[in-house]
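Report of the visiting student (M.T.), summer placement. My assignment was to run the structure pipeline on a short list of targets and document each run. The first record concerns Cobalt chelatase.
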Amino acid sequence: FRETQIRDGLHIFGQAPEGEGLINLLVAMMRFEAPNRPSIRRAILESMGLNYDKILDNPTDFNPRFSKTNGELLDLATHIALDIMTEILKRASVDTISQISDREILEVCRSIIGGKYAKKWTEKEEQKLLDSIRFGISLIPKVQEVRNEMENLFSGFEGTYIEPGPAGSIIRGRIDVLPTGRNFYAVDPLRIPTPAAWQVGMKLAEELIKFYKEKNGSYPENIGFVEWCIDPFRADGEGVAQILYTMGTRPVWDESGVVKDVEVIPLKELGRPRIDCTVRVDGIFRDTMPNLMELIDKAVRKVAFLDEPLEHNFIKKHVIEMMKILDKSTEDKDKIFRKATYRVFSEKPGTVGDGVNYAVYASAWKEKDDLAEVWIDWGSYAYGEGVRGESAHRELVSLLKSVNVTYEKLESDDFDTLDCCCFYGYHGGFTCAAETVSGKKVEVYFGDTRDPERPSVREMKEEMERTARTRLLNPAWIEGKKRHGYKGAVDISERVGRVYGWAATADIVENWVFDGIVDTFVADKEMREWFKENNPWALEEIARRLLETVERGIYKADEEHIQ
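After the run finished, the structure tokens were exported:
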């Protein structure tokens, strides 16, 4: 929870953040570490004589010198950074801040970190502080250029030239996306995954397999991956890399960084079985990254051809099982093998979506089987080399029988699993379909690469708890939404609808989350008045969804909360 960055309200088009909002944004960007500059938190904690990496790796350890846990020390470093940037901005305007001297910056640092925390600084420690703070100061004029958004919007209407610029997550180190308002482009698909993303993907694959094995005592045979377009666009293909490594394969790059092929990792080097991967990609990924679907598809077929024991090659095992099912058709063996190796699925060409969200929002379902059927019907189209949206209902259903766990990952706090109905539609729907077809409980996991050096995996139920506590039920987040009146109320209402969607599809929402929604938005007199003044229909929708969850037996509400 401490490491979660909380969004404060909404961005107003063409308006640059000011005051506290500007300082919070700067420190959020300064937290990320790059090869040529330290994180502001590293610079601060090392100036206090602490080991930043050990603190990150062991957040619950207690530090007797400061009488704080390592997690609390990270929190302290963030507050010190906010205080430093606040004081520096008091000494100069945003227009003249770049002229502040190193002496003044260090003076501010000493006055705030002070004798209570600091030791005598070495020249190296002083330089780390200066490098990090100078970096933050350098961002200010770029943030101010947000005002160009409106000007460039009208330039677009007039059909005139708009300067291009890259896209990405600024709180994950992609500072080159500033200033916003430019005609942004994404990535070169042929260079995905990048070597850096490959390193993160390998770590994440091992974390996922280890997490499952420690909980269940065995390896998963088939992992259901939800692969979002934001993974290649914003994380350079960490998720794609994870899928390849899970199967025991790796990308091959040419000298210019283009991925030209995929190769098999020997079992001896891999040190574990090859795990099967059933991959559901969204419509934007399907349309913009066909080469990545082909890369995964090629990896599957290479692994399926290997002469290895089936207990060490679950892809081959499931291909053989599926060929027995398909062998009843009149097709030749090559076609049967090709269909048995389908692993990348999406919606029908020309359509976008998972269908499940429509059924959920329209209350057009009675049993979870209905939602499973919708998910399968919408997503049972295969993609790969020479395969562009071939109907593959039988093949997908056959794979769902062996899925042990469903999974998705996100790379920053820019998004969370309540930000869009697609998250529960694709992932929750995947879980619902796998459980319905297999008749067994399926694990639901979430991957976190906010810190690419320390990727982690947890149960989606834990991620829902984190999102509920740090966003939906967090007073600071709610106050940010309230500043925006009607639209803020819409956002709150939509998030409650998505909580319901996750509960309906994947059963990962604890009762206390629904209790918290009732207590915070419905039972609270002040909040009811705010909704009444700004958007009474949003509150009506919240109450209606809550009543539906009670009627369906999803929310086990006591009489007080029902009233």
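The chain has a mean pLDDT of 92. The radius of gyration is 25 Å. I thank the supervising group for their guidance throughout the placement.
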